[in-house]
Write a structure and sequence with these properties.
mainly alpha, 3 domains, two-stranded antiparallel sheet, two-stranded parallel ribbon, elongated
């Protein structure tokens, strides 16, 4: 498909000025393979170097997989671009927070698109995000429409942000789906830039609250502490490693029958559970009721 598109775009053929073969030539007088080789080896924000990129050979590839070659851009120090003082500085989230007098109960971005969003009050942040979008689109081989959607989505987020320059809320990013803008790629981009505040509630949180809703206090509170430790982990004593959601669901599901049985026996706290109580709820020969040892 890439070769067909190249021939339609450049119907004129002739000898390539790099390899000398009779092929369809682009605006630079080079064939598609020589041009793609220069794009693959081009450092960021540098012009194409057709002669230098093709001097030591060419990287061949299977049809319609040339976008993946963008990941092969070498990190050679001899071709590393020097810092450009005209480029915007790297993004650093601001340390302050602008409190809102009234918290909005749901934003209607469709209404904003109809009437116009407010002007962005952070030109430096907007310029840095624009440069990050360009690099992200080039690195992942994104098309023009997707790159424009990323840039448009960031400008919308900047216009509705209470604190310009702060991290963006993941819940606000997901609202962009109302405007058919690429929310998932924006989440990945902002996470890479350390500009994402993930305020989403995992599905396991309401699941756990629903399952333990009928348990007495303080048993439910003690289970909530265990749940938070297993969900997020802890680097302070007692150190706990975060567990996968499926592991937590399996542990809670297996323990709920015993917890409900103890609650019916007027035991309202896990601290009142004795070894005798634990042995009483265990099966005689494993969880499956046989002697398989499970």
């Amino acid at each position: 498909m890439g070769c067909r598109g190249w021939r339609r775009l450049y119907p004129k053929s002739g000898p390539c000025r790099i390899c000398g073969r009779e092929l369809h030539l682009g605006d630079t007088g080079a064939c598609r393979l020589c041009t793609k080789q220069a794009y693959v080896l081009r450092p960021r924000r540098h012009a194409l170097d057709l002669e230098g990129a093709n001097r030591h050979g060419q990287q061949l590839y299977f049809a319609d997989t040339e976008r993946r070659l963008q990941l092969l851009n070498p990190k050679s120090s001899r071709r590393r671009p020097k810092p450009d003082p005209s480029l915007p500085p790297p993004l650093v989230p601001v340390g302050h927070q602008q409190l809102a007098l009234f918290s909005p109960h749901g934003r209607d971005l469709r209404r904003g698109q109809q009437r116009g969003f407010p002007d962005v009050d952070a030109p430096e942040v907007a310029a840095a995000l624009k440069a990050a979008v360009d690099d992200y689109a080039q690195h992942h081989g994104l098309g023009y429409c997707t790159a424009y959607g990323l840039d448009r989505g960031l400008r919308v987020l900047l216009s509705i942000q209470d604190t310009p320059g702060a991290r963006f809320l993941a819940s606000d990013v997901l609202l962009l789906r109302e405007l058919d803008l690429p929310a998932r790629p924006l989440l990945r981009l902002l996470a890479q830039l350390d500009m994402l505040d993930d305020d989403r509630i995992p599905n396991i949180v309401p699941w756990f609250r629903e399952r333990t809703a009928g348990l007495p206090e303080p048993m439910a509170g003690e289970l909530a502490v265990w749940f938070e430790l297993k969900l997020s982990g802890s680097i302070t004593a007692p150190r706990v490693k975060a567990r996968p959601h499926r592991w937590i669901q399996r542990m809670v599901t297996n323990a709920l029958p015993a917890l409900r049985a103890w609650a019916e026996q007027d035991k309202d706290s896990l601290r009142s559970i004795t070894r005798t109580d634990v042995v009483a709820v265990l099966p005689d020969s494993g969880a499956c009721g046989t002697s398989c040892g499970h």
